[in-house]
């Protein structure tokens, strides 16, 4: 899929205030600092589209972007940032979970995992929660430029083994880097495929 248009729409503090929209929506989620905003900029070829920060916890709203006038990308707040208060964490958690379960035009959530680390408890819990609540996900390993090929294979193997202790099946997975553009065509192709198959189903 070629990105011809990518535009920031607005940010919303909760699901109730989100615009009524029937366009297919794809959400990006993961721990704070995992590289959500960087990935969005990489996918859309627009460096400043989503705000990238060295300070974790920068994204605190549901940030909507319209792509090719046909689908919507949503940058969600990072979960599990240690330095925010318990109350803030609970607010974000509720906001994210309500969005994921109640947004009817949400097609898929991309769960981002930093490829350098083993599966963190909070990621495992979040993926488990998506499974239990019927939220369709796929996994995106970020920052692959920081590791060698063998280490990437090994880390993914370890992460998947941990998931397979609880789950029979693994969601689709992508290996990405916002530095090298790795995974870009694969993710955009996957989104395109999902949108096209939904259009076929509707007609
Ligand atoms: P919050 O919005 O705070 O939750 O963070 P985020 O998940 O949106 O992460 P963001 O894109 O702001 O990136 C966090 C840091 O990681 C920044 O310093 C980025 O430059 C860096 N980063 C993100 N993606 C990559 C990547 O693919 N490779 C490398 N080397 N660094 C990356
Ligand atoms: Mg962000």
Describe this structure in words.
The chain is α/β, with parallel strands linked by helices. The chain has a single domain (6-202), classed as P-loop containing nucleotide triphosphate hydrolases (Rossmann fold, 3-Layer(aba) Sandwich), CATH 3.40.50. Helix content is 36%, strand content 21%. It has helices at 36-44, 86-102, 121-132, 149-164, 184-202, and strands spanning 6-12, 25-30, 62-67, 71-75, 106-114, 137-142, 173-175. Strands 1-3-4-2-5-6-7 form a seven-stranded mixed β-sheet, sandwiched between helices. Strand 5 (106-114), helix 3 and strand 6 form a beta-alpha-beta unit. It starts with 5 loop residues before the first strand and ends with a helix. The mean pLDDT is 89. Bound molecules: guanosine-5'-triphosphate (GTP) and magnesium ion. The site of guanosine-5'-triphosphate (GTP) has 22 residues, from helix 1.
Task: Report the end-to-end length measured between terminal Cα atoms.
Answer: 21 Å
Number of strands: 7
Q: Compute the number of helices.
A: 5
Q: Average pLDDT across residues?
A: 89
CATH class: Alpha Beta
Q: N-to-C SSE series?
A: EEHEEHEHEHEH
Q: Name the helicity range.
A: 25-40%
Structural class estimated from helices and strands? alpha/beta
What is the number of independent domains? 1
Kindly identify the CATH topology.
Rossmann fold
């Amino acid at each position: 899929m070629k990105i011809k248009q990518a535009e920031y729409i607005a940010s919303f503090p909760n699901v109730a205030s989100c615009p009524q929209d029937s366009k297919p929506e794809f959400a990006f989620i993961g721990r704070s600092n995992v590289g959500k905003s960087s990935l969005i900029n990489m996918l859309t070829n627009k460096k400043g589209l989503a705000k990238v920060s060295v300070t974790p916890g920068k994204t605190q709203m549901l940030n909507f972007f319209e792509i090719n006038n046909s689908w919507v990308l949503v940058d969600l707040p990072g979960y599990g940032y240690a330095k925010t208060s318990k109350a803030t964490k609970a607010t974000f958690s509720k906001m994210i979970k309500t969005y994921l379960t109640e947004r009817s035009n949400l097609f898929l959530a991309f769960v981002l995992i930093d490829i350098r680390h083993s599966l963190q408890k909070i990621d495992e819990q979040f993926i488990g929660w998506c499974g239990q609540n019927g939220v369709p996900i796929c996994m995106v390993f970020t920052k692959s430029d920081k590791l060698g090929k063998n280490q990437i294979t090994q880390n993914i193997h370890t992460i998947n083994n941990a998931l397979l202790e609880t789950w029979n099946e693994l969601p689709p997975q992508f290996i990405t880097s916002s530095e090298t553009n790795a995974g870009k065509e694969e993710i955009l192709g996957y989104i395109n495929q999902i949108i096209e198959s939904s259009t076929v189903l509707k007609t």
